[in-house]
Amino acid sequence: MNRPKHTEFKFPTHIDDYPTGPQYTAGYLPETNAGWRTFRPVVDHDACVYCLRCYLLCPDGTIIKDNGVIKIDMDYCKGCGVCAHECPKDAIEMVKE
Amino acid sequence: MKTNKIFISGDEAVAQGVRLSRPHVIAAYPITPQTITVERLSEMVEAGEMDGEYMHVESEHSAISATMGASAVGARTFTASSSQGLLYMAEGLHYCSGGRWPVVMMNANRSVALPWSIYGDHRDSLSLLDCGWIQVYVEDAQEALDMIIQAYKIAEHKDVLTPMMVNLDGFILTHTYELVDIPEQKMVDEFLPAFETPNKMSFEEPKNLGFSSKPDDNTEFKYQQNEAMFNAIDVIRDVDQEFAEKFGRKYHDMVEEYRCEDAEVVLVALGSVCGTIRVVVDKMRAEGKKVGLLKIRYMRPFPEAEVKDLARRVNAIGVIDKDISFGYEGTVYTNVNSAISKIDKYVYKSNFVGGLGGRDITKADIEEMFNKLFSGVENKSEEKVEFFSLNVETND
């Protein structure tokens, strides 16, 4: 399954622009949602062993697997710090925004 | 046309219609007087006469929840209820129509407690007139079977995608045995195409079903739902015509006029009582009285055009309501009256509230209603809501 990305939302201008009832392609993300983040995760890529524990445990699915390197989707990361807390190598540090 | 008639009850006729429509999922909870329908379906599934899944759910709320969930992902579904059970479904009924999931249900019209009553009237379904379901009322067991098959074709039409409730009078229809023609499976398969949901999903194309909406666009979804209900009017007409060509039985679309061509006075009614009214119309016609019947088949969408058309041609319209909206009038009357008010002509009107909690509406009652309409026109009587055939004196 492809990881959904933020898509620019155009408000419908005609009734036919609406889907039939309240259902639509899943993962259509019209808004970013990270406005209240106070601390941001910063990955030490030298320390990271790509175990993907953070990928599994991130409550918002913002950890991106990118050819052996961990990336974080800052459009949706709320800064909860679960990844930093759980990282067995202490490779993620929470840094104040 | 070849027929295959068997002697069955209205409930069994519904079960046969469901079997022929090949639903994937049936979820229902038994309630008098609908019970025989779901018992028969359960037996058919058990015996392998049907391929569908029968879910023995623990309540009506679960029955509607299960069927709308299955419908949302493209299954053809069936549920059935009555009275208290239908009301227990009420939350789900709105949810289902808002989701645009074309569940088909049978409702055995039964009174609503208190006083507790298992007998028939229309207070259950009419109190849910605004839940966004297409509502059809049938007159006999054959029409019940045929309308189940038609219901799938109407509800699942891409311009409609709205659930549909097939209503038949408790006991009078559900438990009366009649000769009913059972169509051939092959012909039903030709008539009824597979349901194509707009919500097809896969791992490549996941869908988000039944999301919430903000005030920004809730009204648009409700507008769309209302349009779909109006779209159903044309679809009902087309499906009935196609059904007539295929099976040789036609149900006259939104309403059926009986001997209304030159009628002066007409009674409007739903469901089984129409059969009795036909007999009275024939008798009074033989005596030279110009009376007629307007059988309303669909309460939603409402046959406004047909009611207006009739009102332009007659002097008086009486509406029989097997229900009462306490503190006002019968719900059928309110709807009929609204249509009549849009024409530029005075028509004498009267509302006869009767048949509550299973009380018979007799031929003598109906003849008296016709005579009251004639005298109402002649004496320019006050238009009123009248509880018919009360057994006691009142303080009025």
Topology:
The complex is a heterodimer of chains A (about 100) and B (about 400).
Chain A lengths: L22 E3 L13 E5 L9 H5 L5 E4 L2 E4 L9 H5 L5 E5 L1
Antiparallel strand pairs in A: 2-5, 3-4
Chain B lengths: L4 E5 H12 L3 E4 L6 H12 L6 E4 L3 H13 L4 E5 L1 H6 L1 H10 L4 E6 L13 H4 L7 E4 L3 H15 L8 E6 L7 E5 L3 H7 L15 E3 L8 H30 L7 E4 L6 E5 L3 H14 L4 E6 L1 E3 L3 H8 L4 E6 L9 H10 L7 E6 L9 H17 L5 E3 L9
Parallel strand pairs in B: 2-3, 2-4, 4-5, 5-7, 6-7, 11-12, 11-14, 14-15, 15-16
Antiparallel strand pairs in B: 1-8, 6-13, 10-12
Pfam families (chain A): Fer4_21
Protein name (chain A): 4Fe-4S dicluster domain-containing protein
GO molecular function, one term (chain A): 4 iron, 4 sulfur cluster binding
Can you walk me through this structure?
Chain A is α+β, with helices and mostly antiparallel strands. Chain A is 10% helix and 22% strand. Chain A has a domain at 33-96: 2-Layer Sandwich (Alpha-Beta Plaits). The mean pLDDT of chain A is 91. Chain B is of the alpha/beta class and 396 residues long. Chain B has two domains: 5-247, Thiamin diphosphate (ThDP)-binding fold, Pyr/PP domains (Rossmann fold); 255-387, Rossmann fold, CATH 3.40.50.920. Chain B has a seven-stranded mixed β-sheet with strand order 3-2-4-5-7-6-13, sandwiched between helices. In chain B, strands 10-12-11-14-15-16 form a six-stranded mixed β-sheet, sandwiched between helices. The radius of gyration of chain B is 21 Å and the shape is globular. At the A-B interface, β1 of A face β9 and α9 of B. Chain B: InterPro entries: PFOR_II (IPR033412), Pyruvate:ferred/Flavod_OxRd (IPR050722), Pyrv_Fd/Flavodoxin_OxRdtase_N (IPR002880), THDP-binding (IPR029061), Transketo_C/PFOR_II (IPR009014).
